[in-house]
Amino acid sequence: MPEPGGSGPSSRPAFAPMITDAPGLNWAGPGDAWSRAWGAHPQQAPVLPAGNGFTTLAGPRPAALPPMPDRPPAPVPPPLLNPAAAVAVLPLAARTAASGPTAEDIALVRHSLGVLEPVADRATAHFYAVLFLRNPELRALFPASMDVQRDRLFRALLAAGQAAGSPAELTAYLDRLARGHRKYGVLDEHYGPVGEALLAALERYCGRFWDQSTEIAWRRVYRAISEVMIGSAAADARENPAWWQAEVVAVDHRPGDVAVVALRTDRPYRYRAGQYTTLEVPMWPRVWRPYSLASAARPDGLLTLQVKAVPAGWVSNALVQRTQPGDVLRLGPPGGTMVVDHDDDTPLLLLGGGTGIAPMLAVIEEVAEHGRARTVEVFYGARRASDLYARERLAELARLHPWLAVRSVVAEGAPVDGGPTGPLPAVVGRRGPWEEYAAYVSGPPAMVRRTAAVLLDAGVPRERIHHDLEGV
Ligand SMILES: NC(=O)C1=CN([C@@H]2O[C@H](COP(=O)(O)OP(=O)(O)OC[C@H]3O[C@@H](n4cnc5c(N)ncnc54)[C@H](O)[C@@H]3O)[C@@H](O)[C@H]2O)C=CC1
To answer: Any idea where the FAD-binding FR-type domain is (predicted)?
Structure first.
């Protein structure tokens, strides 16, 4: 592998073997570890609208729906999907709903979102109540705890509604959402029942602000949303599976309840350094959590994650405390925008707090592999020295690559390796200048938020501050 700036191949291999006795690919099939692990959930159509709530498991809707005691019949009942087919027989309002959203529709949708915001919790609870009342067979397919889904639903709803006036932004958002939802088993026909439940919740909680124009506006916007998502999912299905099976090939326990988990997927898993995957463990079906990929894509196909067991962290605790080689997990598609452009020489500032160092390790490996000269400065933050589980790996990388500078930053106690002390955002703010750098920030949300603010103050343009936190 050429070193950045070097003219020829280096004597060092780009990737040392991670696990020498890892099982081969193509091991998945009837009777394999995956099938045994998931035997209790055969052929699950594991639909959980974890990310947006515009989608759900379907299944035939009962022929005779129980009446909604607290909701009068909808004044305008056009379908939310494929309205073109039914347009000739629909009443005027329905025909209007079949065309695309107008500027007025978008204003009405945004206004109703503003009305809904203070009662978001109750509105999303109502959404699920209507959904499950009309489609009772769906409840068993959602995870036991719906709290996270509720939060995500409303955030996705807000995001889609707010972005409705910016087609490019909305399409990109929905495209990611649709691709990420294939692992839940979402089908085209699920969008209709979900849309109806959504409208029921909106109608109820917008109160006197809900009128026929608002309903038609929502129907147009929702139809546009559904069409983009259905198209994106279909395009993705031509290239990728809905999920990947991943066999655990090693679990390396580190101080501070951290485990480095090495995985081998059943099919090639294409991702960029800095991205994350979503993961489901057999112990908690239908509960998916994101984890940054801790190594650059390797020729042997192995992936690594760095996971910390945290109180009430169902999936993290299962991974750190219960998972062993041979176990089989499932991965969703890679996501996240913390990827590095290797075509320019902008110096990189990589800021990782706790297990937030994981994507930075992957980025360093990818820069090294790419072989173009650029400065890379890393600040690795932890509360105390004993939490710096990746210190040795970073020191090894710094020894290998002269363009890499690593500083360990502890918030409490004596300096480590002569590095600075204090909260990571404050330490970064005291250093610099950073105006010329592209910054990548990963770690606890408060750390990411504060660090992004410090970098902006330090003159780093917003578009050069990369992280996965929404709304910052
Ligand atoms: N792509 C991403 O954004 C990733 C995020 N994470 C997240 O990173 C977190 C890591 O947790 P731990 O290892 O327990 O880290 P931790 O809580 O021990 O903190 C690590 C660093 O963040 C700083 N920090 C913590 N709270 C802060 C605050 N309120 N303000 C300013 N700085 C603060 C600490 O001083 C320390 O330098 C988890 O929440 C995990 O979900 C992990 C991997 C990737």
So the answer is: 241-341
pLDDT digits (tens, 9 = 90+) for 368-400: 999 777 999 999 999 999 999 999 999 999 999
Identify the residue whose C-alpha is closest to ligand 1 atom 24: 447
Q: How do residues 65-110 score in pLDDT, each as one tens digit?
A: 233 334 333 334 444 554 333 333 333 344 444 567 888 999 999 9
Beta pairing class for 289-292 and 276-280: antiparallel
Ligand 1 contacts (CB < 6 A) are 276, 292, 308, 353-356, 358-359, 381-383, 387, 409, 411, 423-425, 442-444, 446-448, 450, 468
Options 3.90.1150.10, 3.30.360.10, 2.10.10.90, 3.40.50.80; which CATH number does 348-466 get? 3.40.50.80
Of the listed ranges 154-163, 237-246, 360-369, 381-390, the one predicted with least confidence: 154-163
Domain regions of the chain by residue span: 83-237, 348-466
Q: Tokens for 214, please give them.
A: 């608002």
Ligand 1, from 447, 450, 465, 468: best to mutate by most atoms within 8 Å of Cβ? Answer: 447
Summarize pLDDT for 7-39 with one digit per residue, the tens. Answer: 333 444 445 555 444 333 333 333 444 444 444
ipTM of this predicted structure: 0.94
In this structure, of 60-64, 124-128, 366-370, 459-463, the range with the lowest mean pLDDT score is 60-64
pTM above 0.90, yes or no: no
Q: Whose CA is nearest to atom 31 of ligand 1?
A: 447
Which pLDDT score is estimated for 18? 56
pLDDT score for 55: 28
Distance CA 36, CA 291 (A): 24
174 three-class SS: helix
Output the residue whose Cα is nearest ligand 1's atom 14.
Answer: 354
Q: What is 83-237's CATH superfamily?
A: Globins (1.10.490.10)
- Per the structure block, which two tokens stand in for 176? 């990611």
**What is the full DSSP assignment across 243-307?**
-EEEEEEEEEEETTTEEEEEEEESS-----TT-EEEEE-TTSTT--EEEEB-S---TT-EEEEEE
Same fold, 83-237 and 348-466: no
CA distance 164 to 113: 12
Output DSSP code: residue 322: I
Distance in angstroms (rounded) separating the CA atoms of residues 318 and 338: 27
